[in-house]
Amino acid sequence: MSKENNKLCPLVSIVLPVYNEELFIRETIEEILAQDYENLEILISDNCSKDATSLICREFAQVEERIIFFEQTSNIGAAANHIFLFGKAKGKYFAFAAGHDKWSDNYISANVTALENHSSAVLAYGTPCWINEDGKLFDRF
Predict the structure, then answer these.
(1) Neighbours of 124 (CB within 10 A)
(2) String of DSSP letters for 92-127
(3) What residues pair up with 134 in beta bridges, in sequence order?
(4) Angle, to 10 degrees, between the axis of helix 25-33 and the axis of helix 53-63?
(5) Residue of 34, 36, 46, 122 with fewest CB within 10 Å of its CB?
(6) Tens of pLDDT, residues 55-102
C-alpha cells in the first residue's frame, strides 16, 4: 500500500500494552511493522517492566514514526494500561496486541477489508494460534 493510498485507507490504531515481554517483543513489533497495511499508529505502553522491554520498545520508537511509546513510572495494572492506551488511539479502527503476538502480514488489511465490506460488523478477528516459550506452535483447546 503506497503512502498516497493511506489517505484513502482508514487509520488503524494498534494498542500494545506490555509488561516483561522482552522474550518476544522485538518479533511482535517487527511483525506489526511488516503489515501490508501501512496506515497504522502503534501505541505501546510499558507497565514498569523489570526486564529489557522498555529499552527494546524505546529503540523501535526512535526509528519508526508510526510508534508512540509510553513508559509508566509505576505498575498501574493490566486493565488500566489497556484503558490508558485506548484513550490515546486516534484510528477509525483499533486492534489490541500483546507483547508475544505473532501476526500474518495481512492481519490488519484482512480485518479492515472485512469491516469496510460489512457495515453492520462491529468486530473482526483472525484465527489464533498458540506458541510456547520457544516460539513454537502447539495445539491448545
Answers:
(1) 17
(2) SEEEE--TT----TTHHHHHHHHHHH-TT-------
(3) none
(4) 20
(5) 122
(6) 999 999 999 999 999 999 999 999 999 999 999 999 999 999 988 888
Q: Using CA of residue 4, residue 9, residue 11, residue 12, what is the dihedral sign?
A: negative
CB neighbourhood size of 103 (10 A): 18
Cβ-contact 45, 17 below 8 angstroms: yes
- Nearest 5°: the CA angle 65, 12, 32 is 60
Side-chain-side CA neighbours of residue 83 (13 Å): 5
- And the C-alpha cell for 63? 526509528
The per-residue pLDDT for range 18-32, each reduced to its tens digit, is 999 999 999 999 999
pTM: 0.87
For 56, counting Cβ atoms within 10 Å of its Cβ (0-12 exposed, 13-18 middle, 19+ buried), the class is buried
Asked whether the CA dihedral 74, 79, 80, 84 is positive or negative, the reply is: positive
